[in-house]
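Regression test attached.
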Amino acid sequence: MSDHTVKAYDDDLGRLKTMLAQMGGLAEEQLARAMDALSRRDTQLADLIIADDAKIDALELAIEERSVTTIAKRQPMASDLREVMSAIRISSDLERIGDLAKNLAKRTHAMSDSLPRQIITGLKRMSTLAQEQLQDVLDAYTRKDAARALEVWRSDEEIDALYNSVFRELLTYMMEDPRTIGLCAHLLFAAKNLERIGDHTTNIAENVYYLVHGKLIGEERPKKDVTSITAIDPR
Amino acid sequence: MDSSAPRLGNAVLTPPEPIILQERPIKIKSRHVTVHYGAKQAIHDLDIDIPDRAVSSFIGPSGCGKSTFLRCINRMNDTIPIARVEGKIEIEGQDIYDKSLDVVQLRARVGMVFQKPNPFPKSIFENVAYGPRIHGLASSKNEHEEIVVTSLKRAGLFEEVKDRLSAPGTGLSGGQQQRLCIARAISVNPEVILMDEPCSALDPIATARIEELIDDLRQNFCIVIVTHSMQQAARVSQLTAFFHLGNLVEVGDTDAIFTNPQEKRTQDYITGRFG
């Protein structure tokens, strides 16, 4: 799109986009490192991740401040307004993703050395998928590619489906060997965190779509998470 | 209180009533309107439907034809010898360019407020009383006074001037003068009020008062406003029309135009990329 008559306005919006891209990169990195720390039980890395979350929080604040100032100074309209609004919304989703990654990292301390390898496999698959989705949606944002965002939005059900099977798997472990309950409970939360990250990613996808088209995605999102109604018969 | 409204705790949730333009009757209908000033074409083949009891705003860069078209609606262009208007403009189905139509009567039906407040060099009272008198709208002194008071009240000016109705209108502040001009316009009970940048000579507070007044008046009148302030168009109007180089580029619900315009030229203009 051509430039504004007032050049400083372009700088304001450009700076917002740059900060958001930085924030997205950080969130991706935190998620990847958190899963790494968790699966290798690397508590040192985990502490590093926990400390680094402050960077994401600081960026969210900076984006919010710049957005507010831009609205106050420029009264953005149409696509510019959507640009600012989606920056605010996307940054808040990224901040939550950062928190959830931090929470994943925290659980590294609760992992015991006896962690059976196969338990973590499903979780890793979930994490890989969540990372891919996040990367795709951030790419879609940078390129203003609504079709790609829509793809991400639709494919969240894969994460949901994986979550269901991880959930059932962990329940089975716990029934087989009650000594794993403590560990598995943590892993259940970890899986839930990854599922939530998928949800935030779809929120971002919705915002990218809105940014490009100026309207909301008109269909119902496919949801496959059934864990809240899953029960295991103890007999 | 409406007991059927949904509640959340103690709060009654009543969504604001949306103004659906499609359901409003059309007041002004323009078809294939073309305006020339001498050899220069100012408006190209313009079709637009303007709803009743709503505010419609015309926006666009200088020289885009918005004021020219506004002036067609009460035939002000008749006073410019080189102006030539073709096509059809109807108010309530009546062709206003019909040869048998009395232009003076038309201008009583279609009032106008200008950019610079232009009260007559007469008293506040006389400024408002003049229109009803020449149109013979009041038969007695009492009736006359009533019209003046009602008009001043509707224009939100009465409380400020009630003790000095015989003072000259030109002695008022800019914002008060503009409200006096609005009172003068509504004193003859028009159906349509045209406003050509009514706030561009006013400070922000006087502007806010006029905007508040416009919002009140839309209950009873069809209001068309030309403005250079996009924020003003967004705030006061329900329908927005964007003009560029004599063409009507896009017209639609104000909310849609300012959040998601369909035409690139509209987008560029309202986001400050040209003009």
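Expected vs. actual: identical. The two ends of chain A are 64 Å apart (CA to CA).
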